[in-house]
Design a protein that fits this description.
Blueprint (H helix, E strand, L loop, with lengths): L17 H38 L6 E4 L4 E7 L4 E7 L2 E6 L3 E4 L34
Antiparallel strand pairs: 1-2, 1-5, 2-3, 3-4
C-alpha cells in the first residue's frame, strides 16, 4: 500500500504587524468617536437638563406632558407623582417622568404662553366632523 499522492507544504502566512492591525481598527475607532460626540453626548446633556427641570418643578408651574396635555401642577404628591390640573376642577394624578417640558415665558413680552379655548359652549370648533348616514 503505497501512497501515490504527494504532500505539498503550504507557505506560512506572514504575521501581521502591529501597525497594520491598528490601521484596520482605525475606521471602527473613528466611527465610535463620531457616534459619541454627535449622538450619545448631546442626548446625555438633554437628559440631564430634563431631569434638572423636573426636579425644580413646583406647584403652579405650567407644563406640557409627553402625551401633549397642557396643565398646571396643583400639588406634588410624592417624589414621583403630582396632581396636574388640565381644566378647572379637573385634576389628574401623573408621574413626573411624563413631563415633556415646562411652558416657557415669551422672552420679549415676559408673558406666559396661553392656550386658546372656546369661551362658550355655543362656539363651534374649527374642524367639524360630519356624520354620513349609510343605508343598507
Amino acid at each position: 500500500m503505497f501512497f501515490n499522492t504527494v504532500a505539498y507544504a503550504q507557505e506560512v502566512a506572514p504575521v501581521a504587524s502591529k501597525a497594520s492591525l491598528f490601521s484596520s481598527f482605525l475606521p471602527l475607532i473613528l466611527i465610535f468617536f463620531v457616534f459619541y460626540f454627535f449622538i450619545i453626548r448631546p442626548q446625555q446633556k438633554r437628559q440631564k437638563t430634563l431631569v434638572a427641570m423636573i426636579d425644580a418643578l413646583k406647584a403652579g408651574d405650567e407644563v406640557l406632558t409627553t402625551t401633549g396635555i397642557y396643565g398646571t401642577i396643583s400639588s406634588i404628591v410624592d417624589t414621583n407623582t403630582f396632581l396636574l390640573e388640565i381644566a378647572p376642577n379637573v385634576k389628574v394624578k401623573m408621574a413626573k417622568g411624563s413631563i415633556g417640558s415646562k411652558v416657557n415665558q415669551d422672552i420679549g413680552t415676559g408673558e406666559q404662553s396661553t392656550i386658546t379655548t372656546p369661551k362658550s359652549s355655543k362656539e363651534k370648533p374649527s374642524s367639524v366632523i360630519s356624520k354620513k348616514s349609510s343605508k343598507l
